[in-house]
Amino acid sequence: MTMQVFTRKLFNFVFFWSEEVTLLLLGWLAFMGIALGFRENILHPHGTNHE
For residue range 9-36, what is the model confidence (pLDDT) as tens digits? Predict the structure, then answer.
């Protein structure tokens, strides 16, 4: 949304796809953060280290 406001005010046009790309990136980064948390045992249910 910020990109839409920025381009509308400065260049007088809007990227119609910017909101969808932002939502896809948010979802992707959330899943990558969860995967990293499990890999580093941050999100392990019992808090134990299985090394």
Answer: 888 877 778 788 889 999 999 999 988 8
Distance CA 31, CA 51 (A): 24
Q: Which two tokens stand for residue 14?
A: 């809007």
Tell me whether residue 4 is exposed, middle or buried, using C-beta atoms within 10 angstroms of its C-beta: 0 to 12, 13 to 18, 19 or more.
Answer: middle
CA 33 from chain centre, in angstroms, equals: 9
How is residue 20 annotated by DSSP? H
CB 5 within 8 A of CB 22: no
What φ, ψ does residue 49 adopt, rounded to 5°? -105, 120
Tokens encoding 45: 């249910």
